[in-house]
Amino acid sequence: MPMIDVTEAASSQIHRLLDSEGKVESHGLRMKVIGGGCSGLQYQLAFDDDVRENDTEIDAKGVRVIVDEKSALYLAGSSLDYVDTLMESGFKIENPNAKNTCGCGQSFGA
Fold first, then answer.
1. pTM of the model
2. Residue 104 reports pLDDT greater than 70
3. Does CATH number 1.25.40.10 belong to domain 4-98?
4. C-alpha distances in Å from residue 33, one per residue of 72, 86, 97
């Protein structure tokens, strides 16, 4: 099982966003878990060009994903998807390590 799986839809959207910002060659997607939200932990996604000593760098469907050591504990086995429907639009993380989530889906507990 890969540490993080990225769907084709998410990969395409990430490439579009990186291209629009002129960062395709220089940046990757940093996935991070930080404290906060109503369930205790929340996800943070950002483009980053700095890979630190304790980071893990993954190539997932052509997307460079960067995860720090602490976040990797919470994100192992997760899948990143992108949805665009009438009801919702944006990135969604399916995380097998989440024991509970809040109603809005923005935070989780592990």
1. 0.85
2. no
3. no
4. 8, 28, 12
